[in-house]
Design a protein that fits this description.
The complex is a heterodimer of chains A (about 775) and B (about 500).
Chain A: H1 8-14, H2 31-36, E1 52-58, E2 65-71, H3 73-76, E3 81-85, E4 110-111, E5 117-123, H4 126-133, E6 137-142, H5 149-155, E7 158-167, H6 170-176, E8 179-187, E9 199-204, E10 210-214, H7 219-230, E11 237-241, H8 256-269, E12 273-276, H9 279-285, E13 292-300, E14 306-318, H10 324-333, E15 343-352, H11 366-384, H12 388-395, H13 413-426, H14 429-442, E16 446-459, E17 468-475, E18 481-485, H15 494-506, E19 513-515, E20 518-519, H16 534-561, E21 568-571, E22 574-577, E23 580-584, H17 585-594, E24 600-606, E25 611-613, E26 618-620, E27 624-637, E28 643-653, H18 660-678, E29 710-715, H19 741-752, H20 768-779
Parallel strand pairs in A: 1-12, 10-11, 14-15, 18-19, 28-29
Antiparallel strand pairs in A: 1-5, 2-4, 2-6, 3-5, 7-15, 8-13, 9-10, 9-12, 11-20, 13-14, 16-27, 17-18, 17-24, 21-22, 22-23, 25-26, 27-28
Helix pairs in contact in A: 1-18, 7-8, 10-11, 11-12, 11-19, 15-16, 19-20
Chain B: E1 5-9, E2 12-16, H1 25-32, E3 51-58, E4 61-68, E5 81-83, H2 85-88, H3 96-103, H4 113-124, H5 133-139, H6 151-161, H7 168-171, H8 173-183, E6 189-193, E7 197-201, H9 205-214, E8 219-221, H10 227-232, E9 240-243, E10 253-255, E11 259-263, H11 268-275, H12 280-287, H13 292-297, H14 300-305, H15 313-320, E12 323-328, E13 331-336, H16 337-340, E14 341-343, E15 346-347, E16 354-361, E17 367-374, E18 385-394, E19 397-406, E20 413-414, H17 416-422, H18 434-443, H19 454-472, H20 477-480
Helix pairs in contact in B: 3-6, 4-6, 11-12, 17-18, 18-19
The chains are: A alpha+beta (about 775), B alpha+beta (about 500).
């Protein structure tokens, strides 16, 4: 039985060993700096002379209202205060939205949610700014506030038009099916809780230019936003980010506002300005994972095989669109998870509420769609009285059942089936199922549950044009490589993976490759580091840049040695001609320089094959799918609703791993983060629209002791991604987040054991309270 | 009278005479010393990114403890050695814990990493050969990581912290101890700024009570795990602060045949070591109270004085029948703990009065004690419900019950109706318990908040009493609990 994650070295042995840097389990590129405290984050950068600090002001008890007056006089009079900025201070557009133009950086006329920034204090210290911010008074005429999805549905208020995928006539088919069920699921949101909060520092340059250091996943969008807000050319704004202290989607669009405000203050005062949010402000003022209400109906045969389903998704988008279009689309893309729905109607409503605008979070709507699918599998299994794993296996995509409701063929369905069956065997699912049944028969108060769930996650931005990337590579005369690309480092190890790729492509050692901060003036017009795609996209752009330089060099060397270019190889800092080591890459670089051959190149990559027509809801939105499966065993306490995760086994497909250590890190970390979403992490708003869980004292992400004692993560023995991705690897950022749906399903299984045949009324997150309610309801004979 | 604070940093004595009353240790490090390796993650002592180690002489021996620098006041580190992440590799080489982090791929974004390493630096210095993964996760409950999923961090800890410490700090321990002894004096400390503003660290109970009686508007600070948040979150102006850290009389525990007389400034960590041995459920509740950083700083006196409606220590103490002593000037009084809590946020403490001692009677052979902490997350969470029960038994008949709950009312409170209903109940007749369990509905009208609904609190409170009775009547806690099994938790490093 598996109880231990293999070491990265053991994991590496599973992947194809080659004499390359790619494939090695080298540490994160900043690991040494992390452990010594010498890795500077934005707030750690040396502070420029005369730096000013910003603090936000908002109406403390208003979820929706008309601003009658903003009185800044008391704040202006406070010690150390330089100025207080309001919407009237903005020279350009008052907007930091990623697309729809509906996110003011400072409220203008209307307050749309509790915590919306109305003004910012600029002062000589952060402390002075924060104290003065409390003195700004905002007079408001209250307006009716819509706070929940249910409220918004009743009011029929949306931020974006409804959208749907449809195949066949599922509503009729459900009704005609031999077995039917309908169920509703509420799925809670999630705060990112990146350890480093939102922060930006704007430094004025000559000609009114600005250089902005921002903790952002999307430097190009910060650049665009700052230019727009200040009514300046994008060419006069540069944005830089070396690293973030975590992001998880929370700094994809939501970093814009703080950078724009810092830039505005720098523009107004002519001095460098920094804005770093306090944790509570950060949690109150920035968007989260969308919470959803899902209403499902399904028709199936008496073995549990689905014939038709309708799923209605309604999400809380908050007051504006932000990235809700793509997020809610992705919920639909993953409402099938790994299962073939012969007929399906998958509908999405994007509800407007007077709460903070919800945003990207690892998985980007996929987790909610997938949770609904797995909830449906459990409900069907309970209804037909079969083991949920059997129902899952019977509903998987397969031969002659391989087309998704949106018309994409699932090419690797055999891989996912193999992953599930291998995992079930390795973790002894069947015998444990029997052991658990015996435990439950013997125990009156504690009950165990088991679940094995798959993940099939589509890789590519579903907004097709975002699937492009650029890189800038220089080879210097000493043989060292300086490299920039469009991706940002938030902990995922992107920089190291790309350095490994660059070393191989350029034929130098890893030590010769130097990656520096993402900057908009080095690589322009980048996409956000998001959608799990940053290695796929930026890695290939780097490959293309390196290839260009290497081809120039090998052609040059071939001429020198009078051989065909194919006879020249560069590897690990050395040049080989017909297999003989002839000189160092440095020597070749110097010689090529002297011969006036360029040693620099910009690389570019656009994902091939993908096409998506949103109008017809048909096409191939994803280049490929990433796969995995997890089996979780839990114990619940039926007197209190507490649960403990006893054992987790994961088998995950990363194709050929570029770096098994980093990949295992993504899988384990994603699992624990997803487990938090479904168990302890509960966002609570009160009836005045105020977030009550705005700090780690009240919002509980997993701690070390929540990690299952027996926790095994293995990489699937893959032959490599069938698609021509970099190193034949697969994306790994988001897919593992959905593996812990198995934890939720195992809790549901434990509750279900109290009254087989009834579907527990269990919403997510499965907090002790939610579990106790489900237990008490089912004991009273109340299922769904 | 001393007008400065002194501490040791990287082998040297640092003396500061310009310390504002509310200046935090973290702000000193990041803004004044410009040592930015220590991070601010939450500014409320809940994430551990700001963890640093404080070295103190305890019984003559140098002991390192982890603290949250974000909510500790700078003046409170007087007389300590301060160790930050920068100090671990100042000589160029990596500390064993740092090396293990590299080997185990234990950092991703790296922002929490310095805090983890400082927590583990203190564990490393505990020399714990039998260290288990449970010990490690308990030690790390106050350090949040959002990236790794913790497994590699725990592996790094297990690899390094099982062997005897062998680092530069151990090598120069004698020198450090000598420096600390040199720093130790019995002076009162007073640092005044801008006229009326001051932070004082009196060194005796007499000088504390005199000062406190004179400045009845001053804020008393012990561990600062609560008052720290008044500063960082509420931006409260606290012009006068009296810190209790240097008052030795408040740090002592006197163990007698009758019970435990605990100084009000005894840390939860020390209390855990002493009281935890007396009864396993007390050990488990104290193990889950805050984090090691909070237990190192936080004190029972502070927990009581600030009147949290939840606890976690007041319900335990009330069930045990504890009393407290208070002193105003030279006048001392004593009262049952439950009488101290008048109403939500209102305690029976007169201006200038100081809680000096908590008197905890021993459990005897006629007692059965159970306590449960219920929270959304097992470790480092504030209880939704904290329940503590002391049953007095004659054979299998309950002749007295003290049932104390936190989280069920505006104050920690006994369940009088249920206590009465339990009188005479027989353990072998579970049907006889029902009236008591149901009587809890008459005892409490709990509130709904982000930790749980009123309905959940009511149901859970009943479930916990029922569970306690099941156990007292003979059920193994293996059958009734998913964590904190009795008599299984020995050997915790915490």
């Amino acid at each position: 039985m598996l109880h231990r994650t293999p070491t990265p070295e053991e994991a590496m042995a599973q992947t194809t060993a080659r004499d390359t840097e790619a494939g090695k389990a080298v540490p994160h590129d900043s690991a040494l700096k992390h452990v010594t405290g010498r890795a500077p984050y934005t707030d750690d950068l040396p502070e420029p002379e005369g730096l000013l600090h910003l603090a936000p002001c908002w109406a403390r008890d208003c979820a929706h209202g008309r601003i009658l007056d903003v009185d800044t006089s008391a704040a202006q009079a406070m010690p150390g205060v330089i100025t207080v900025l309001t919407a009237a201070s903005i020279p350009g557009e008052n907007d930091c939205a990623p697309a729809m133009g509906d996110d003011p950086i400072l409220a203008d006329g209307i307050i749309h949610f509790h915590g919306q920034v109305v003004a910012v204090v600029v002062a000589v210290s952060r402390d002075a700014a924060r104290r003065a911010a409390l003195q700004v008074s905002v007079e408001v005429e209250p307006l009716p506030a819509i706070l929940t999805v249910d409220d918004a549905l009743a009011a029929d208020d949306t931020v974006l038009p409804d959208y749907a995928f449809q195949r066949g006539e599922p509503e009729a088919a459900v009704t005609e099916a031999p077995c039917q069920l309908s169920t509703r699921l509420h799925i809670g949101g999630q705060d990112h809780f990146y350890l480093e909060g939102q922060v930006a520092m704007a430094v004025p340059w000559e000609d009114g230019d600005l250089h902005v250091f921002s903790s952002t996943q999307h430097p190009s969008e910060v650049q665009h936003t700052v230019a727009k807000v200040l009514d300046r050319l994008e060419a006069s704004v540069s944005v830089e980010v070396r690293r973030m202290g975590g992001a998880f989607g929370g700094k994809e669009s939501q970093a814009n506002q703080w950078a724009a405000l810092a830039a505005l203050a720098a523009h107004v005062t002519g001095r460098p300005c920094k804005m770093r949010l306090d944790r509570d402000d950060d949690m109150i003022m920035t968007g989260k994972r969308h919470d959803f209400r899902v209403d499902m109906r399904a028709g199936f045969d008496d073995t549990g095989r689905i014939l038709a389903t309708t799923m209605d998704f309604a999400s809380r988008c908050g007051y504006s669109a932000d990235l809700s279009l793509g997020i809610n689309d992705r919920a639909l893309f993953h409402a099938d998870n790994a299962y073939y729905y012969p007929q399906a109607l998958l509908r999405s409503r994007r509800m407007r509420t007077n709460t903070v605008s919800n945003t990207a979070f690892r998985g980007f709507g996929g987790p909610q769609g997938m949770l609904a699918a797995e909830r449906l599998m459990d409900a069907i299994a309970i209804t037909v009285g079969r083991d949920p794993l059997d129902v899952r296996l019977d509903n998987l995509y397969g031969p002659d059942r391989e087309t998704t409701p949106y018309g994409m063929v699932v090419e690797e369905h055999a891989v996912l089936r193999d992953i599930m069956e291998s995992l079930a065997q390795d973790c002894q699912y069947r015998t444990r199922r029997e052991r658990i049944a015996a435990f439950n028969a013997d125990n009156a108060f504690l009950k165990k549950g088991l679940a094995l769930t798959p993940v099939k996650f589509g890789i590519s931005f579903t907004l097709t044009h975002l699937n492009q990337a650029g890189a800038l590579v220089h080879l210097y005369k000493d043989g060292s490589v300086h490299l920039n690309h469009g991706g940002t480092e938030m902990g995922q190890g992107l920089y190291q993976k790309i350095a490994q790729i660059a070393a191989d492509e350029m034929g130098v050692s890893l030590a010769s490759v130097h990656v520096t901060a993402a900057r908009t003036d080095k690589v322009p017009n980048t996409s956000a580091t998001a959608a799990s795609s940053s290695t796929d996209l930026n890695g290939m752009a780097v490959v293309n840049a390196c290839k260009e330089i290497r081809e120039r060099l090998t052609a040059f060397a071939a001429r020198q040695y009078d051989v065909a270019p194919a006879g020249v190889h560069m590897h690990a800092d050395w040049v080989y001609v017909d297999g003989d080591k002839v000189m160092s890459v440095a020597d070749l670089a110097r010689a090529a320089y002297t011969a006036r051959i360029s040693l620099s190149a910009a690389g570019y990559y656009a994902t091939p094959e993908i096409n998506w027509d949103r109008e017809t809801a048909q096409g191939r939105p994803f280049f490929y799918f990433a796969h995995g499966a997890a089996c979780s065993e839990v114990t619940i306490d039926t007197l209190t609703g507490e649960h403990r995760v006893d054992q987790v086994d994961v088998l995950h497909d990363v194709g050929r791993s570029i770096n098994p250590a980093l990949d295992i890190g993504q899988i384990e970390g994603g699992f624990v983060q997803g487990m938090g979403w479904l168990t302890t992490e509960e966002l609570c708003w009160d009836d005045r629209g105020r977030l009550r869980t705005h700090a780690p004292s009240t919002y509980k992400i997993p701690t070390a002791s929540d990690v299952p004692k027996a926790f095994s993560v293995r990489l699937y023995a893959s032959n490599g991604n069938p698609k021509p991705t970099v190193f034949r690897s697969k994306a790994v950022g988001e897919p593992p987040l959905m593996l812990p749906i198995s934890v939720y399903c195992a809790i549901n299984d434990a509750v279900s054991s109290l009254r087989p045949g009834l579907i527990p009324r269990l919403d997510a997150p499965a907090t002790p309270e939610a579990v106790l309610i489900a237990v008490q309801e089912i004991r009273r004979g109340n299922g769904v | 009278m001393r007008k400065c604070i002194r501490f040791i940093k990287s082998g040297h004595v640092v003396e500061l005479n310009d310390v504002a009353p509310t200046e935090t240790l973290l702000d000193y490090l990041r803004l004044r010393a410009r040592e930015t390796g220590t991070k601010e993650g939450c500014a409320e002592g809940d994430c551990g990114a700001c963890t640093v180690a404080l070295g103190r002489l305890i019984d003559g021996e140098l002991i390192y403890e982890p603290v949250n620098s974000c909510i500790l006041l700078l003046a409170q580190i007087d007389g300590c050695e301060l160790v930050t992440i920068e100090d671990l590799s100042r000589d160029g080489g990596l500390h064993p814990v740092q090396k293990a982090f590299l080997d185990h791929h234990a950092s991703q974004c790296g922002f929490c990493t310095p805090g983890f390493i400082m927590s583990l630096f203190t564990l490393y210095h505990r020399d714990t050969p039998g260290l288990t993964s449970d010990d490690v996760t308990t030690w790390l409950a106050g350090n949040l990581c959002r990236c790794t999923g913790y497994r590699p961090i725990v592996d790094a800890a297990l690899e390094t912290c099982r062997s005897a410490a062998n680092d530069a700090f151990r090598a120069r321990a004698e020198k450090t101890e000598a420096l600390l002894r040199d720093l130790a004096d019995s002076d009162d400390i007073l640092m005044e700024t801008d006229g009326d503003r001051f932070i004082a660290l009196p060194s005796t109970l007499d000088s504390l009570c005199a000062l406190s009686a004179t400045h009845t508007d001053a804020t008393l600070v012990s561990g600062a795990t609560d008052v720290g948040l008044w500063i960082t979150k509420q931006l409260r102006d606290l012009p006068k602060i009296i810190a209790l850290n240097r008052v030795q009389e408040l740090q002592d525990i006197h163990v007698t045949s009758a019970g435990f007389d605990v100084g009000a400034s005894v840390s939860f960590q020390k209390l855990h070591e002493v009281l935890g041995k007396h009864e396993p459920d007390i050990a488990e509740v104290l193990r889950r109270l805050g984090s090691i950083q909070v237990r190192t700083s936080g004190t029972m006196g502070g927990n009581i004085a600030n009147g949290s409606p939840i606890g976690d220590s007041p319900p335990l103490l009330i069930a045990l029948g504890a009393q407290i002593s208070l002193r105003l000037g030279n006048e001392t009084r004593r009262m049952p703990l439950e009488a101290f809590f008048l109403d939500y946020g209102k305690q029976d403490r007169r201006p200038g009065e100081v809680i000096t001692q908590i008197h905890i009677p021993r459990l005897d052979a006629s007692h059965a004690f159970r306590a449960f902490k219920l929270s959304k997350r097992f470790d480092q969470d504030i209880s939704t419900v904290l329940a503590a029960f002391r049953f007095t038994l004659v054979q299998d008949r309950i002749v007295e019950a003290r049932l104390a709950y936190g989280g069920m009312a505006g104050v920690p409170k006994r369940a009088a109706h249920a206590e009465t209903a339990l009188m005479g109940c027989v353990l072998s007749a579970p049907d006889s318990w029902n009236a008591a369990v149901e009587a809890l509905d008459n005892d409490f009208t709990p509130l709904s908040d982000m930790r749980g609904s009123a309905e959940y609190r009511r149901e859970a409170a009943k479930g916990l009493l029922f569970k306690a009775l099941l156990e007292v009547s003979g059920r193994s806690s293996q059958e009734t609990r998913i964590c904190g099994h009795r008599y299984q938790e020995a050997g915790h490093a915490a």
